[in-house]
Amino acid sequence: MTTRSTTSKRGLTILDVAQAAGVSKSTVSLVLQGSPLIREETAQRVQEAAWRLGYVYNRQAADLRRRSSNTIGVVINDLANPFFTELLISVERKLVDAGYVVLMAHTHEDVDRQRKVLLSMREQNTAGLVICPAQGTPLTLPRDLQGWGIPSVIMIRPLGEGSYDFVGAQNSVGLQTATQHLIAQGHKRIGFLGGLSGTVYKERLAGYSKALKKAKIPLDEKLIISTKPNREGGREALTRLLQSKEKPTAAVCYNDITALGALTALGDHHLRAGSDFALIGFDNILDTAQSNPPLSTIDIHPAMLGEKAAGMLLKRIETPTIERQIFFSEPDLLLRQSC
Amino acid sequence: MTTRSTTSKRGLTILDVAQAAGVSKSTVSLVLQGSPLIREETAQRVQEAAWRLGYVYNRQAADLRRRSSNTIGVVINDLANPFFTELLISVERKLVDAGYVVLMAHTHEDVDRQRKVLLSMREQNTAGLVICPAQGTPLTLPRDLQGWGIPSVIMIRPLGEGSYDFVGAQNSVGLQTATQHLIAQGHKRIGFLGGLSGTVYKERLAGYSKALKKAKIPLDEKLIISTKPNREGGREALTRLLQSKEKPTAAVCYNDITALGALTALGDHHLRAGSDFALIGFDNILDTAQSNPPLSTIDIHPAMLGEKAAGMLLKRIETPTIERQIFFSEPDLLLRQSC
DNA sequence: CTGAAAGCGCTTACAG
DNA sequence: CTGAAAGCGCTTACAG
Lengths: 339, 339
Fold this sequence. Notes:
CATH superfamily of the largest domain in chain A: Response regulator
Number of strands of chain A: 12
Helix content of chain A: 40-55%
Low-confidence stretches of chain A: 1-8
Strand order of the largest sheet of chain A: 2-1-3-4-5-11
Distance between the termini of chain A: 50 Å
CATH class of the largest domain in chain A: Alpha Beta
Largest sheet of chain A: 6 strands, parallel
Oligomer: homodimer
Radius of gyration of chain A: 26 Å
CATH topology of the largest domain in chain A: Rossmann fold
């Protein structure tokens, strides 16, 4: 974190370096790019001069000239949910390690905001895009992005039938596994907490239904409580369920933060997950390992999903013509203390 | 999210637009910048042509020419802590609303990674920087950034005595308030959970000591458990304390996630915060409103801090010569159920 | 291995 | 109000 000259001049160009090193502009450019065309000795002299002068490479200019870009846009729907933060973290890490710098935008599930940031990233000429679409994103998005010529991968929420790179989870399988586990433990009245709409919601709900059907347990609509998929929603959902006549003895959840909220509701009623009620979450966010009590959940490996998405994008940038890439992470039942 | 031409050509320039609209290049440029020099009627014709062609403004080129930039770098130390995520969210929102696009980097408390991303952002020629320094960041950082000529604001963790814009919290006051509240409730043995080192740690610990001293309660080193400031750390810290001979009846925490971990430890021992033990966190992250039980905490208004930091940076960019800006958020005791 | 020259897509005085 | 010209800081053939 030290520069030779404390007040390094913006405005120093390769021409200045060239002069100082006694070579031509092009030679400096080649050296800066690590070209093997330049003699080692010369390269050293140039590097040294650049350092001494406090020269700063101007990537804007280079990118303009080469018609390239080393930025990648990452747009995320909801960072209040640690699941998406974990995704962001692993995407960012992989992209930075690959030499990119990431343009990040948070949409707050706001489609209009999303539209704006995408437009803005387009003007920035990003080399690629990884996006967790906001709820209600038009299904034309993947096609639009392709029209723009920007390599993209969509995460978590599928966007219709088009041919676009995608990374997600086996939602139905995951929730089926969770529900079956509770059934195997002897539970008959099992709630489904949280979530409002969207493909992911439908898939997860389908997994729940399927497990019940297989066990010949009739599906009771009153056990499905639809709320926003966050802590408040989970708390509210379970509270409602606990006040109903035929209380359930267990519940699966749309996602982990909903389950975390449900834990709070249990506490409100002086109940404890594990001994008094069985609860299973979905995602396996880091927080669940240290919740009160630690939450059993369906692990869809958030960090791995992010890395996968970044990897796909890098491949797509490298070879734009490769065929469609899709990945669904396999859910693993992770037993802790809440069931 | 629709473009007129589905496969919009990168490679369309203002020259193409000029031709299509029957005006000169400069006129198009002026229109694109919303200059009042151009007749409304002409402007419309140009806009229409740009839209029809699927023209995309090339900000790289514009920025190069004007020697400007519309990106701002945001570098964050630890997104696994929701406090910093909330900071990031509000910083990002304010910057995007001001017309910038944000280059985001996560350092994982890794000083070396931080050095690299800062170098990279410098090459990108960012208009400014807001940074939550990684633990162990050299105190020369603010001076280096000034040397680079990049307007910057430092968040949360002060970096020595230099003259740099800063946004943080009144750490000592906050922890003193929390501790005093517990004392007022009759607690005599009060633990201090989590945290390892750093200025912030020292300040918070000082607030705790001060409150004890004021109440003439001797400080017992055995009640100060130093661990990583995260959930595991908090759980471990309180577990250790609960196994000691003279158990405390209450504890304050380095931060909220530590407190959340402590809640888990309490659960492990079939204890409940509020009735069996009094616990107060620090930060007021969103999660604490729905923890089990909801956590009393010191509210330092995370979202407001982020907005403040972004606001400072915008001002600094606008007027580089204004004098030093500093802000410390006033901590408010927020009583919920954990004490 | 090195140098002179053109050009990436814009903006900005400067004339008209 | 509009057009011709120079230039932002690089890269990339192309000669030598």
